[in-house]
Design a protein that fits this description.
Elements: E1 9-14, E2 19-24, H1 27-33, H2 36-47, E3 61-64, E4 79-84, E5 91-96, H3 100-105, E6 111-115, E7 122-127, E8 130-135, H4 144-155, E9 160-163, H5 166-169, E10 177-179, E11 185-187, H6 192-198, E12 201-206, H7 217-233, H8 236-241, H9 247-253, H10 275-282, E13 285-287, E14 297-301, E15 311-313, H11 317-323, H12 332-345, H13 349-364, H14 370-373, H15 383-394, H16 398-403, H17 408-415, E16 425-426, E17 429-430, H18 441-448, H19 484-500, H20 513-524, H21 530-550, H22 579-590, H23 600-605
Parallel strand pairs: 1-6, 7-12
Antiparallel strand pairs: 1-2, 3-4, 3-6, 4-5, 7-8, 9-10, 9-12, 10-11, 13-14, 14-15, 16-17
Helix pairs in contact: 2-19, 2-21, 7-20, 11-13, 12-15, 18-19, 19-21, 19-22
Length: 609
């Protein structure tokens, strides 16, 4: 009998053969790999390897939900996209909110595994238990906004759409998958949009109405009731001002990227970009993902161009920081426009912001010249050039479009002249907008994240204390080097969020380990303990690590950019993480050898053959 919390079916689509297969989900498999990125990692490990071309037909593109997706659990309308990344050539995943996840699961499926490559543009139409492959020739070339509205009109207002834009069609490794149209939520990282484009798959439209059964709805609703007051108080800033609410605080503590991560502070300009300053002036309305009481999404109006005066998603913190302070741009309207361009073309804003800042520094240092830029002045703070550069990149036009099509690491290799020293990335994934010189656990988490630089282990949020039942020592402050066990356990916990498919902002509303357990056990009827819960996260983190090890990953890939091991100029914190010492201790805490390879005993302990 199917475990509750799951739909009990996996859909497989081979676009080369136009073949659709529905298989049963094994209950033991579900308990071991949980869902979301756990399911995806297992499918990817079993069916792809070093010989698999990330942009070839044998790669998998996996959409997966978790056991709490679509239930009454708060903040649970999410899904994961998993693939072999064209960015790193290793494990890749991206997480996305909105309303697509629950609508897909209600079609009767827990995961969608896509392989092959269509001979012409297509989209998948998925409804209750049914999947069809439809011609998308009329959609190819459209941006994500137009694709979304076109398919909603064809398939009904209650359908949800996840699609790529022109950048994904051109298989640019910085390409994202966008859900929710103009109010876009993005599966932005790891080049998932490029893989979707390589398969000539324009969109996946879902319109499910089936009920998702849960084992103990009273446990889920009582947990919701218990955390709701905290959601309304501790997450109040997110509700009022969106994810950029703390941008000024981050600048104060040295967490904010400024001038391509080189400069220490940027007052008073940074005050123009905080969520409270910008949202108060420009907000049209709030919005949120399915079943979310926080509602951190904000709608604003874009200015100029094709979508002048149209309501679009306001930029999130990562976008504001990387396209704003990191480029010395404090004009909020410009950042709104940049965000709209990225969402319309389907591009990761974290990658795009780092590209612009890198280009500006290369220009300042004389490595990029007017001959390269076509006379474009790429000085820091130049608003017009920043927009023009972004449009050039997302359209893959000219020298600069070709230079940056795969990100800053490859661009630096082409430019030379020591530009690799300020191309901030890990495993070719551009750095998110949080600085490990302000929170030492990030140094380890950036370096060892399986998909490349990732801040979503959320370790930086608990540097001054600890998480009950985490199984790690209390923290002694953000500059303490004693982060080995703590960083590992935070990664394990974060991995479980990505497997349950819970939004990590739920933590600000009091969803800690006990509450995660209530949601998991209430959905499935299982009896997971806190120890089993964290061990499941450890198993899945190690599974992803072993995928990378099979692709040649080792200590050489677990590196922190040099700039993050040197002092800032003009303010900021003066602390530097003792990186190599911390990495040695982390490997020991993980049960890995000195090169970062898991010991056989650890794999046996985690039931990974």
């Amino acid at each position: 009998m199917k475990t509750k919390g799951y739909m009990g079916k996996i859909a497989r689509v081979d676009l080369s053969r136009k073949k659709i297969e529905i298989i049963e989900l094994d209950d033991a498999f579900a308990r071991k790999y949980i869902g979301g990125s756990g399911f995806g990692a297992k499918f990817l490990y079993d069916e792809t390897g070093p010989e698999t071309d990330p942009l070839g037909p044998d790669n998998l593109l996996i959409f997966a939900t978790g056991p709490v997706t679509g239930t009454k659990a708060f903040n649970s309308d999410r899904f994961e996209v998993i693939t072999k990344s064209p960015k790193s050539g290793m494990y890749g995943e991206a997480n996305c909110g909105g309303r697509w996840g629950s609508r897909f699961k209600k079609c009767g499926f827990d995961a969608l595994v896509i392989k092959g490559c269509s001979d012409k543009p297509v989209y998948l139409d998925i409804s209750d238990g049914e999947i069809s492959i439809n011609d998308a020739s009329d959609l190819w070339g459209l941006d994500t906004f137009k694709t979304h509205s076109n398919l909603k009109e064809k398939n009904g207002a209650k359908s949800e759409v996840a699609c790529i834009g022109p950048s994904g069609e051109m298989m640019m490794p910085i390409a994202a998958i966008i859900a929710d149209g103009r109010h876009g939520r993005a599966a932005g990282r790891s080049g998932v949009g490029a893989v979707m484009g390589s398969k000539k798959l324009k969109a996946v439209v879902v319109n499910g109405t089936r009920e998702i059964e849960t084992a103990d709805v009273d446990l889920i609703t009582s947990t919701n009731k218990a955390v709701l007051p905290t959601m309304r108080t501790d997450a109040k800033a997110l509700t009022e001002a969106g994810t950029a609410c703390s941008l000024d605080l981050f600048e104060e503590i040295g967490n904010l990227p400024i001038k391509n991560w080189y400069q220490g502070n940027w007052q008073p300009a940074v005050d123009n970009l905080t969520g409270y300053a910008s949202i108060a002036k420009t907000k049209v309305k709030d919005y949120g993902c399915g079943n979310c009481p926080i509602r951190c999404g904000k709608v604003t109006l874009t200015k100029g161009g094709e979508y002048d005066g149209v309501d679009v998603a306001a930029p999130e913190y990562e976008t504001v920081a990387l396209m704003g302070s990191n480029c010395l741009i404090d004009d909020y309207d410009t950042i709104v426009k940049q965000n709209e361009i990225c969402n319309a073309y389907g591009v990761d804003t974290i990658a795009a912001g780092n590209i612009i800042a890198f280009a500006m520094e290369a220009y300042e240092r004389g490595i990029l010249t007017d001959e390269h830029t076509g006379g474009m002045d790429l000085s820091f703070g130049n608003v017009d050039s920043a927009k023009k550069l972004l449009e050039t990149v997302v359209k893959k036009e000219g020298f600069l479009g070709d230079l940056f099509k795969t990100g800053i690491r490859d661009a630096a290799k082409k430019l030379g002249k020591n530009s690799e020293e300020f191309a901030l990335n890990v495993k070719n994934q551009e750095i998110p907008a949080h600085d490990p010189r302000a929170n030492f656990s990030l140094a380890i988490n950036y370096a060892t994240s399986n998909r490349g630089a990732c801040h979503l282990t959320f370790s930086q949020d608990y540097e001054e204390g600890n998480v009950p039942k985490l199984g790690a020592p209390d923290q002694k402050g953000r500059f303490s080097p004693d982060k080995a066990v703590y960083s590992a356990r935070m990664q394990d916990w974060a991995t479980m969020f990505d497997s349950l498919c819970l939004c990590k902002f739920a933590r600000y509303g009091g969803v800690m380990i006990d509450e995660c357990l209530n949601y998991l056990n209430g959905s499935t009827g299982w009896d997971f303990t806190a120890e089993e819960f964290i061990q499941a996260g450890e198993r899945l983190f190690n599974l992803k690590r072993m995928y990378n090890v099979r692709h040649g990953a080792s200590r050489k890939d677990d590196q922190l950019p040099l700039r993050m091991q040197t002092h800032r100029r003009g303010g900021g914190t003066n602390e530097l993480p003792p990186f190599n010492i911390m990495l040695n201790e982390y490997y020991q805490a993980r049960g890995w050898d000195d090169m970062g390879i898991p010991h056989e005993e650890k794999l046996k302990e985690l039931q990974l053959k």
